[in-house]
Structures are given as C-alpha cells and as structure tokens.
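Q: What does the assembly look like in three dimensions?
Context provided by user:
Components: two
Sequences:
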Amino acid sequence: MIYFLCFILFSIGLYSILTKRNLIKIIIGISIVDYAINLFFILVGYRMNGRSPILEKGEEIERIVDPLPQAVVLTSIVIGLAVTALLVAIAIRIYEKYGTFDINEIKELKG
Amino acid sequence: MEHIIPLFVAISLATAFLISLLGSKFKFFRTAFPVISSAALVILSVLSIFLVNNNGLMVYKMGGWIPPIGICMVLDGLSSFMLLTVNLVAFFIMIYSINYVKKYTDVYKYFGLLFLMLAGMNGVIITGDLFNLFVYLEVAAVSSYALVAFGTGRQELEASFKYMVMGTLASGLILLSIALMYSYTSTLNMADIGKSLANEGSSSVIIFISVMFIVGFGLKAALVPFHWWLPDAHPSAPAPISAMLSGVLIKALGVYAIIRIFYNVIGSNIYTSRILLVLGTLSMIVGVIFAIGQYDFKRLLAYHSISQIGYVILGIGLATPLGILGGLFHLFNHSIFKSLLFLNSGAVEYSTGTRDLKKMGGLNKKMPVTGNTSMIASMSIAGIPPFNGFWSKLLIIIACVEANEYIYGLFAVIGSVLTMASFMKVQKYAFLGKLKEKWKNIEEVPFGMKFSMICLALICVFGGLLLLPEISNLLLKEASNAVLIGKEYVNQVLGSV
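A: Here is the predicted structure of the complete assembly.
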C-alpha cells in the first residue's frame, strides 16, 4: 500500500516535470521525484514494528530496521541538495538574462 | 600493488581542492599544476595496464573492510583501458585549456570543476560497488552541468538547464533501479549482486531493473531515443569541455556502466544484446542524418557523437569477441578524434569568433595547423584508411558479418558513408576554398593549443598500430577479455579477497 503511494508521488513529480511551463515548477517536480525515490529506498529497509539498528551488548538481533538504506539515502539527499542548489542558481541566471521563467519564451536552441 | 587504485580518485580530488583553494592567488595553480597533475594520472594509468597484465584482476579494500561488507575498488582490463582513454584525453585538454580559457574570468573555478569531473569519471571506472558508482556518477554529472553553463550566456544557461533536468531524471531512474536491486539481492557490492543473482535465477524483477538501467544509462550515453539533450548541451560548453563531454564523459558514465552492469553483474542474455543492437543502429543512423543538415560546427559534431556512440554500442551488443574488441577500440578512437574535432572547432572560434560554417571559408591558409589536423580527424571519423577510425569500423562491420547480422552491418556502412558526406561539407565550407575578406587578419592559435591538436592528430594517424599483436594483447585483448568472461568477474573479485 505504502509502496503504491510512493509510486503516486513519483508520478506526480514526473507529471510536473513534463507538463509545467515554469522553471521553478519543474525544479519542484524534480525534488518530488527525488523524494519519492528516497522514500522508496527507505521503505526497502523498513520492517514492521522494527526498532532502531543500534546493537547493545548482550542483545539479540531481531526485528531490527536495515541500517544500510538509511546511510545510502542520507548520501542521496545530500546529492539532491547539490543538484537543487545548482538548478535554482541557473534558474536565477536565466531570469536575469531572459526576464521570464516561462520555457515557451526560452528557446533559442532548436533541435 | 593494489594501492595505486584509489590514487586515481585521490589525485584528481586533491588537485580540484588545491586549485579551488589557491588558484585565485597563485598563477601556478591555474596553469602548470593541472597539466602536471593530469600527466601523473596518465603515467599511473599506463602503469595500471602493466599491473593488470601481470597480476590479473586487483581489488582494493577501502578502509580494510572486506567486501561485500566494505566498499571495494576493482581494477581489471576494462577499467585500465577506460582509465587510459579518459586520462589521456584529459591531459591534452588541460594543455589546450590554459590558452583557451583566458577569455573567461575565474579560470581557477574552471580547472577545479574540470578535475572534479575527472575524479567522478575515474571513480565510476574503478569502483566495485553499485551505490558508489551512483555517487561518482553524480559528482561527474553535477560538475559537468556547471561547466556547460560556464560561459553564462543566454544559450549556455538554457542548454545547461535542459541538460540538468534530463541528467537528474536519469540519475533518479538509476537510483531507483539500485534500490530495487538492493531489495532483491540485499547487497550493493557488484560482485556479490552477481553471485546472489546467479543463485536466485531470473525473474521479472530483473527484467524491470534491466529496463530501468538501460533507460538511465542510455540517457547518460545519449542513445537515440534518449539523445535530445546532447546537441544542446555539448555545443554550448567551452570547446575543451565539449571535447571532454563528447570524448569521454558519455562513455565513462554511459557506455562503461552499461558494459559493466549488463555483462559482468547481471550477465548478458539474448534480449539485452538485441536491445543494444537496435538502440545502437538507431543512434548510428538518426545521429548522422541530423548531423548532415547542421551548419553550426559544434552542433554538427555533437550529432556525430550520438552516431559514433551507436557504433560502439552496436559492437558491444554483438557480444562476440571480435564485436566487443571492435566496439572498445572504436570507443578509444572516438574519444581521440572527437576531442580533436572539438578542439579544432574551439581553435576556429578562438580566432574568428564564429561557429557558423557558412561564415567561414579558406581558413586553411591562415590556420594551417588547425586545418590539417581537422582534415586528419575528419578522415579518421569518416573511416578512411589508414587512420584509426577505419580499423575499428572495419572490425565492427566484419563482426556483424561473422555473427550473420548482415542488416546491422549494412547500416554501419551506410552510417559511415553519410558521416563522410557531412565531413566533406565541413572541410569544404570551413577550411578549403577561397579565404573570405573578413578573415584577412586572423592568426593561428597559441602554442599550447597547437601542441595538443598535433599530438591528438598523431594518435589518430598511428592509432591503427594498437591492433598489432603485442600491443593489442596488452590493452585491447585484456579489455575485451574482461567483458567476455562475463559472470566469471564475480568469482575473480570475491576470490581475490
């Protein structure tokens, strides 16, 4: 069920990348796709009623959440931050040059 | 001797750090230092080839943790071959850049980003861990987004934004397939994934993951139908960066990753090689057809990159020893002559300030070095003997015929003829013919730019010698064997720890 919600989130992001005409909305769409994938990765390591993955002395390993996806997603969030920062920076420069965020008016390059 | 493996990432990262830290104060850090550092990388890659030849596959355990628990770095024939290609091209581009980037402000940022990109590419090539591959891929990709926009003109920014949206989507798909792969096999080490896939047998999840990988890395490698960001992004960057992007980035991030994952980790099967064959042929033909109509010099070259990557993928997709050898050889050759052509276009832009072929004409008289080296590169890319492009295309076509794939061989020949047509156009408009009045006073480019163009042209002329048995046993055979052993890779990596 929750995987399905994750998929819906991904689709919303993809929809906004593909159909929106505003640079900022495209950036938001990219962030949503990013979050959907991160959420999916976290869910991969989740176990129902699991506890945090800290092993103390003399404790049994049972019903423990997989810690690896959490470490991995942390890295991926940082990468996402870098990409978003760069995207926003470029969008600001585009606004300075063109005076608009509308991609219909930003098309000097053609296939 | 496995301790040289992490140096490829460490040297380039340290160089990027030092340049960004000290480059604005000292001139040494934005002229000689990048060249010295990339020369060291070239020497190390040559050393790594001999090491692999003597010792076979080598594994470096990061922090002493034994894989699959820790992250490992793997050096085999394919990696050392790719390392040589990437670092050799990077070395010549560094020499070229010193003169070329004088027109920009903040030159040290340019070199810092360039070395960050190099670190990412070297990392992608030597890593043995799937998520680590993703991280390095993003390092290389993010710095290349910034470098495309380095000119901060209207077109550069637009191209960079487009490139970034496509690149981020591709990375997202790759990460998603890594997540699925992790949920299926509970490990991220590539060799360990291969092992548990062999135990589990195939399922529909693997097919889904394969499709996602092909789309993700196909976007990075600009295969048709995922190609349309490339003709905008590559021409808009500064010329040395275009050479780097077209010459090695799409190969290290796209083609290398496809080869590694589909041959060594998942294991090749008839469906993936069919898909690669069709995608390769499509890219080959569609790229060259678009290229013929172009009058922007760099845009024309960018479309040819798509077409030549098609040849590489076609060779790889045949999955016969000769096909893989030809594909890898063409990968090396393409990185040499395509960087040379982009450097030529940069030289023309440096002297005349235009990229429009119609406005040029007769430049050979004023810029003999640029004109002649571009003639060599054009003949090389069009596949005229005895230049290196001829041998690799010949190998690919022979391999097609041997594998009874006559149709694909025919398309390869057609693509080659069309390539020749479009480069005859380039030569006719830009370099041959009468010198236009406007260009009476232009001068040849400075020494550094001439030097790297001449060196690359020499490699183009003598590149065919790589097929001599002694050299090919050392380099190309070793690389194609690393692909051909397929899932034996898993045992070799896990066996050597």
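Follow-up: Chain A has one domain: 2-52+64-98.
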